[in-house]
Structures are given as C-alpha cells and as structure tokens.
Specification:
This protein is mainly alpha-helical. Helix content is 72%, strand content 0%. It has one domain: 23S rRNA-intervening sequence (de novo design (two linked rop proteins), Up-down Bundle). It has four helices and no strands. Helix 1 packs antiparallel against helix 2.
Length: 126
C-alpha cells in the first residue's frame, strides 16, 4: 500500500490507538490527578500522533523531518514514564498497563527506524 498521508503510517495508527487506550484508562484515575498525571499522560500520548503528522508534512526538509520524529520519540518515552507512575500509584493495574507500555516500545522502535533512515522518507526536490 502506498503511503499518501500520515494516517496511512503504521506508527501513526499504533500511536493513535494507544492514545485512545490511555484516554479510556485515565478516565478512572482519581479526581486529584486531573491536572497532573491525567493531563500529562493524555497530552504526551496525543503529542506522539501530532508530531508524526507534522514530520510527515515536513519531509521536504530532512532536518525538520528528523526533528519532529525526535519530538515524537521523546513524547512516546514520556508517555511510558506516566504509565509507570499510573501503575505504581495503583491507578492502572499492571495487566492493563504492560500491553500499552509494550505498544510504546514498538512505536519507539518504528520512530527510531524512521529517524535512522530519513532519506527513504524525504521528498526529493528533483
């Protein structure tokens, strides 16, 4: 399948699905976490998707493309940190948190692969 838009990217699809899982799970977090853990984990998980979309639109410029993918990578790692806190605070049970965490491991691998091979994604000016 030819990739025509960011929504066709497997990494985007995985990140979007994971962000929605986090949204659903975080609805059960305590009210006192609304402006801290809940907001942070939702924001970082959604930011992975947003940065992938931005990277896709910046692929005429290698440095900008890689920079946005790097931002997505950072946000994915941050999301993993918040997942760890959610489990350690018993807001999310380990059986629910582990598969989401592992999904972010896959997302990170995919992003790093794209970062390491930008020329295969860049739109050539010729």
């Amino acid at each position: 399948m030819k990739i025509q838009r960011h929504t066709d990217l497997e990494v985007y699809k995985k990140a979007q699905n994971a962000a929605m899982e986090i949204f659903q799970a975080s609805r059960e977090f305590p009210k006192e976490e609304t402006y801290s853990l809940t907001d942070q984990i939702r924001r970082s998980s959604r930011s992975v998707c947003a940065n992938v979309a931005e990277a896709w639109r910046k692929r005429r410029y290698k440095a900008a493309f890689v920079a946005k993918l790097s931002d997505a990578e950072s946000e994915a790692a941050e999301t993993q940190v918040w997942l760890e806190f959610a489990v350690k605070c018993s807001y999310l049970n380990r059986d629910s948190g582990t598969p989401i965490y592992q999904t972010y491991e896959e997302i990170l691998r995919m992003l790093v692969a794209m970062i390491n091979t930008p020329d295969s994604w860049i739109i050539s000016s010729s």
